[in-house]
Amino acid sequence: MPRRCTVCDDPQRHSIDEALVDGAPYRSVAKRFGLSESAVYRHKTKHLPAQLLKAKEVEEVAQADDLLEQVRDLQGHALGILERAEKAGDLRTALAAISQARGNLELLGKLAGELDERPVVNLNVSPEWLELRAVIVGALEPHPAAHSAVLRALESAGDG
Ligand SMILES: [Zn+2]
Question: Which alpha helices (H) appear in the chain, and where do they start and end?
Fold first, then answer.
């Protein structure tokens, strides 16, 4: 039968785990909670599920960032097509491109909202997002219908 872990059995386990996840050195955690250093070290390396949770969170943010990158890429294409279609006087294609661009923006807004709830990344203050938003809105200025549709989408994304 394996030895019991004094840290897992400790009534203050939650606070101990929190300190360890925050990155406190196991020696100082041991001192603070009156535990042996080796027990805290073993607990930290073998038993700390919160550490796994944190790793998972980081991974999810990375995936969301990747998705964001792809949507931005799509948005670039949609705006390029809009530009060309307008120059060619192809209004049907221009409208389709506007509709795509609008969908991309809604997706960006949703992604921004999701990321906003995470501790690691706050898109609403991310310089990249603010820059992207300015670029999109600026690029659509010659197209009043698209411009106002996009502004509406951005505002509703900000509310949500
Ligand atoms: Zn333990």
Answer: 6-9, 13-21, 26-33, 37-46, 49-87, 91-116, 127-139, 144-159
CA of residue 130 to ligand 1 center, whole Å: 44
pLDDT digits (tens, 9 = 90+) for 87-104: 999 988 988 888 888 888
Asked whether the beta carbons of 59 and 49 are under 8 A apart, the reply is no
Q: Give the global pTM.
A: 0.38
> Rounded to the nearest whole angstrom, what is the distance from the C-alpha of residue 22 to the centroid of ligand 1?
17
pLDDT digits (tens, 9 = 90+) for 41-52: 988 888 876 556
Q: How far is the CA of 6 from the centre of ligand 1 (A)?
A: 7
